[in-house]
Amino acid sequence: MRKSILMALALSLVTAVGGVWAESMHDRMHRAHMAGKKDAHAMGEHDEVNMPGLNGKDTTPTEVSDLKALFTQHKALRRTVDNLPDGIRTVTETDDAALRSKLLSHVVLMLARFQNGRDPEVVIQSPTLTALFKHADVIATRIEMSATGVVVIQTSTDANVVALLQAHAAEVSDMSARGMQAVHERMQADHHKR
User: Fold this and answer.
1) Strand-strand pairing, 149-155 and 87-93
2) Is 86 helix (H, G, I), strand (E, B) or coil?
3) How far is CA 119 from its chain centroid?
4) DSSP 3-state of 87
5) What phi-psi label fits residue 121: left (phi over 0), alpha (psi between -120 and 50 degrees) or beta?
6) Beta strand 78-84 with 87-93: parallel, antiparallel or unpaired?
7) Which residues, including other chains, have CB under 8 Å from residue 185's CB and lie 6 or more apart?
8) What is the pTM of this model?
9) Which of 62, 52, 190 lies closest to 130 in space, CA to CA?
10) pLDDT digit string (tens) for 20-54?
């Protein structure tokens, strides 16, 4: 019952609140780099207070607020991942009730996006998550509440999608452990692969 109420609330929030598209931090940093400026971060392009990189194509203020809380308070999260033969089982928990509310909201809103095939295209989003949105129709998802957080089980019959699920779960665990530092390192590595 509670899960269906959360899903209904998530769908209402996603459709009722509009988001704002912002030029990506990566694009600004790349432009500064191409203009010969050595450190775009030192020029104020990087902003861990306002976190413009959390904006996406149609992200809502609630989604951005949830992400900001999860990144700024990542040390209060506990996360475990079990790789299954056909997917993943993740457990993310916190003793902080307000952060737990943000965590649950984030999970529910992201699942609603998967169900509707609405990739948020968040600026800092990994290519792995982008690929998962392209295959959302072959991913089965189940959520369960734990005493202090949420359990997400995602499976697929497609071996390539299973590999993507496991890779993304590892990325999220790294972000949970190290916050924005993990994102910066991944984005820099992705940039240099191009």
Assistant:
1) antiparallel
2) coil
3) 11
4) strand
5) left
6) antiparallel
7) none
8) 0.73
9) 190
10) 223 344 454 444 444 444 444 433 345 555 565 67
Question: Cα–Cα distances in Å, from 142 out to 111, 132, 152, 160, 186?
Answer: 9, 16, 6, 20, 28
Whose tokens are 């500064």? That residue is: 32
> Tens digit of pLDDT for each residue in 47-105?
555 565 677 788 889 998 898 899 889 999 999 999 999 999 999 999 999 999 999 99
The Cβ of residue 176 has, within 10 Å, a number of other Cβ atoms equal to 20
Burial letters for 113-145: b for 16+ Cβ neighbours within 10 Å, e otherwise? Answer: bbbeebbbbbbbbbebbebbbeebeebebebee
E strand intervals along the chain: 78-84, 87-93, 140-145, 149-155
| Radius of gyration, CA atoms only, the chain | 17
Residue 81 dihedral angles phi and psi, to the nearest 5°: -130, 130
- Structural tokens at position 144: 């369960």
User: In angstroms, what CA-CA distances link 31 with 36, 40, 51, 144?
Assistant: 9, 9, 19, 44
Tokens of 125: 């989003």
